[in-house]
Amino acid sequence: MNNTILADFLIKKDDSYYCRYGDFYIDPLYPVKTAVVSHAHGDHASPGHQTTFATSFTIAFMEHRFSKYPKDGYQTKRFGESWMIGPVKLTLFPAGHILGSAQILMEYNGVRYLYTGDYKLQEDATCEAIVVVPADVLITETTFADPEVQHPDAAEEIQKLNDINSNILLGCYTLGKSQRITHLINTFCPDREVLLHHKMAMAHRLYEQYGDVPLRYKLYDRKSMKGTKDKVYLVPPLTFNSYFRATNVARVFASGWARLQQHNDLSLYISDHVDWTDLLTYIDQVRPIEIWTIHGDGTQLRTHFEGNILVRDIHQANSSLLID
């Protein structure tokens, strides 16, 4: 058995990651023959593939979002279920990012390659908790791979809303974040009522169908916030930005990015990605021989592990590799 790590096992090809040994793509953003999709966010899931492998929730969301496309190419895979694409063995494990989000373990010639997708270690009752997967190569996102980025406890952070004496306009992403925020408010801000923008309704309904946590909310209408000070109106980012002149409400945006906290009435650092500490924790648990970085800047991670673990940017490392 050959246990050599293959530098070209997974390479960046256009806007996706390609495994030439199994002839499949991970999270492709254009139609391909065979796609393995880590989760349902728009920068990872796209329509038109001949065959799409993913978890049941990811496929359910894609079927609703891409309803004009045929559904016969979707192949649902359970967490922990292994299958073969050519000579490569694949298994999905929970990533803790949003409901249905998966890490993708690929095994080939005795080597285990783990693609994390987006992931987090923080507790989140609205999605499956991350499962630690030992691997020889950890292919990890590095969205917040910066020692200065330390995300606070979400339960403590959401309770800041209890100190605001007005209705709140709260910006957050439609899929995953808005459901997590709804549950956090339901749990830790019991005197607050969640109002939901209509564009978030479909994702909430699917979470209620596929998830384990009930969500208490009402759809927003123009009379919802009149004469009260106990409402939290969840809106998508574009709507939040368009309401920059809104009066008699506190403006808040839930994100791990400092730049999205500027010009708001309160900072709300709630992220669905690992911060620096959790990234190092997960690396210690996975115990990889090599780390390949994607989705972000891995420079500080490479400096941190210099002389101990090989860390390389999969984009730069594969730039000179040719694809047949």
Automatic annotation (TrEMBL):
Keyword Heme found: no
Domain of life: Bacteria
InterPro entries with a match to the protein in the record: MBL, RibonucZ/Hydroxyglut_hydro
PANTHER family membership: BLL1145 PROTEIN, CLEAVAGE AND POLYADENYLATION SPECIFICITY FACTOR FAMILY MEMBER
Keywords, in A-Z order: Exonuclease, Hydrolase, Nuclease
GO molecular function: exonuclease activity
Designated name of the protein: Exonuclease
Coiled coil feature spans: none
